[in-house]
Write a structure and sequence with these properties.
The chain is of the alpha/beta class and 228 residues long. The chain contains 7 helices and 10 strands.
């Protein structure tokens, strides 16, 4: 469960990114965060991983208030969360396999287990034959699949996706969405995806939380980007 309890986020210039936000996302749910640029979608994702701290309110992952986690323990929080970025954030001097393996190396998995797990997860996301290529040798869709593999390789409880289809053509965008949907259904990981893609949101009929000017203006169980 991910819960925001009356969360407000103000920045030093007094701009308000979020104002008294409250919502709960149960385990295993797939949720779209929608709204115009600057509405507060990315701020919500950054607050979940403690990349930002709220000005007011509580943010909970299961029963733990992430705002109260000591700085020395934030890495433990982030082990429960897989994050997918629009700009991939892959290391250009490491291969696909090495980019994914880094997550397992960081938590101290033995090398034999790392090798097997990386091979398996690359097959799951459909790029098993790209393991030894570098990011600059990949297409946009392949880079995003690598980013997804990295996000899910440690079996996270929650997957955060920030505009994961924003730089992709429609065909690749749909492939990425189908992949995330399959991961949600098969692994049970909660997926929270910020997006501007109206067609995808309206087709999937998942829960939609719409943000505008830092406030929730719509929260529908089987929602659309724009109501008719």
């Amino acid at each position: 469960m991910v819960k925001f309890s009356h969360v407000t986020k103000k920045f030093p210039d007094d701009s308000i990114a979020l104002s008294d936000i409250h919502f709960e996302i149960p385990d295993k749910q797939f949720v779209f965060l929608v709204g115009p640029s600057g509405a507060g979608k990315t701020t919500i994702l950054r607050l979940i991983i403690r990349d930002l701290e709220p000005t007011e309110g509580g943010i909970f992952l299961d029963s733990e208030d992430v705002t109260k986690i000591p700085s020395s323990k934030i890495h433990l929080l982030r082990r429960k969360i897989g994050t997918i970025f629009q700009d991939y954030k892959l290391l250009s001097d490491k291969t696909v396999g090495e980019n994914v393996a880094m997550v397992l190396e960081a938590i101290g998995k033995p090398q034999a287990e790392i090798d097997t797990t990386v091979d398996n997860i690359l097959e799951v996301v459909g790029i098993g034959d790209k393991k030894n290529l570098f990011p600059q040798q990949l297409s946009g869709g392949e880079m995003q699949r690598t980013a997804i593999a990295r996000a899910i390789v440690a079996d996270p409880e929650v997957i955060l996706a920030d505009e994961p289809t924003g730089d992709l053509d429609p065909k690749n965008a749909w492939e990425i969405i189908k992949l995330l949907s399959r991961i949600n259904e098969q692994s049970g990981a909660t997926v929270i995806m910020a997006t501007h893609n109206t067609e995808i949101v309206n087709s999937l009929k998942k829960r939609v939380i719409k943000i505008d000017r830092g406030k929730i203006i719509k929260d529908e169980k089987q929602g659309k980007y724009e109501s008719a």
